[in-house]
Amino acid sequence: MTEDEYSAADIRIVEGVEAVLRGPGMYFGVGLDSPRLPTRAFEQVVGWSLHPATRVAPVHALRVEAEILGDLAFRVVDDASEALGEDGTPRIGFGSLIGPDRWCCWAVSAVSARTVVEVWRDGRGLRQELAGGGPLAEPERFTPPPGAGTRMEFQLDEASLAPGAAITAALSSLDLHGSACEESAGPFRLLLRDLR
Question: Which of 45, 36, 48 is CA-nearest to residue 67?
Fold first, then answer.
């Protein structure tokens, strides 16, 4: 066999956390060795909150709050609660409360030392903690704020990232209005705070 030839025996299928760690460019557009990865991870989570997949929600969330808590830590809150059914049961995706439709958020949890997810609707709320993309325990009930929403807090894993990598204030890839904004139920609000 020449250098350019390969067969089915040369193909290896990777899934889950291994897929994120082996091919981070597919999820973040940069590699683990890029100092931009923390910023891209933050942009991905905020971007999904602003523009969820149209099969999840035909319009973007109307309220998104994003806080940079530290160089490798951030929190995003939106008013979507698709991971919690109307009867209060969780729609588990990726083995967690992150939900089956927030694949980019799960990818960020895969490169995080700690992730906390809270989902609430109609007075019912569930919370779950993850590490490295995997749940540490089953979802537990908590007393939620009014309305509906999802709150995700990420502490990126410093050991997986380039030395000195940090979330920057240069959010060049954050798309505030894209094709998903064609049908808006009203004006939306993005509150972005850097608490460092």
Answer: 45
Largest pairwise CA distance in the chain: 64
* Contact between 116 and 128 (Cβ < 8 Å): yes
CB-based contacts of 14: which residues, under 8 Å, 6+ apart?
A: 22, 23
Q: What is the pLDDT of residues 71-93, one digit of tens each?
A: 999 999 998 888 888 788 888 88
Helix (H, G, I), strand (E, B) or coil at 120: strand
pLDDT tier, 109 (very low <50, low <70, confident <90, very high otherwise): very high
Pairing of strands 124-131, 140-141: antiparallel
**59, 49 in Cβ contact below 8 A?**
no
Q: Which residue type does 191 have?
A: L
Contacts of 145 (CB under 8 A, 6+ apart): 120
What number of other Cβ atoms are within 10 A of residue 45's Cβ? 23
Tokens in use for 142?
Answer: 């908590």
Whole-number Å distance between alpha carbons of 186 and 184: 5
Provide the β-strand partners of residue 192.
66
Query: What is the token pair recorded at 76?
Result: 């995003």
- The SS3 of residue 127 is strand
Instruction: Please check whether residue 155 is in contact with residue 72, taking contact to mean a CB–CB distance below 8 angstroms.
Output: yes
